[in-house]
Amino acid sequence: MSFFEWNDKYSVGDAAIDADHKGLFDLIRELENANLTDGYLAEIIGRLEDYAAEHFAREEMLMKSMNYPDFDEHVKKHRAFVEWLETVKTTYRRAAESPFQIGDMVNHFLESWLTNHIMKDDMKYRDFMSEH
Ligand code: FEO
């Protein structure tokens, strides 16, 4: 089993948010085996934009509804993801690097995001929610 395989221990107890997270696990595994053409990379960037817009809004609404004390800190990390994605888009538009190089950078960032944000930061609000 790959490290980037969804496991129920990552569930935050909200079906929509869990589905978003599962989608990101799937995307990372998809990228690992992908043939990184220009068109495919553009599609991945589009999917990540949708993810950021929908998932972060959903999660921030939930954290706000339970007065999560680390809300501001958590939101800063979401904004950093959006800024990173803007950099990826700019690099892609300028064709500054090959699709393979950009894809590699995207994959490394997402693996780190999954490990440090979803598996750690998101678990903190999940724990707060279950304790309150
Ligand atoms: Fe699930 Fe805070 O991103």
What features would you highlight for this structure?
132 residues, mainly alpha, binds MU-OXO-diiron
Q: Please report the distance between the alpha carbons of the first and last residues.
A: 34 Å
Number of helices: 4
> Which ligands occur here?
MU-OXO-diiron
Query: What order do the SSEs take from the amino end to the carboxyl end, as H and E?
Result: HHHH
Percent of residues in helical segments?
A: over 70%
Oligomer classification: single chain
Low-pLDDT residue intervals, each spanning 5 or more residues: none
Query: What structural category arises from helix and sheet content?
Result: mainly alpha
Average pLDDT score: 92
Biggest beta sheet attributes: none
Write the layout of secondary structure elements.
Elements: H1 15-32, H2 38-65, H3 71-93, H4 99-131
Structural commentary:
The protein is an all-alpha fold. It contains four helices and no strands. The longest helix has 33 residues, at 99-131. The relative contact order is 0.16. The structure holds MU-OXO-diiron. MU-OXO-diiron binds next to helix 2, helix 3 and helix 4.
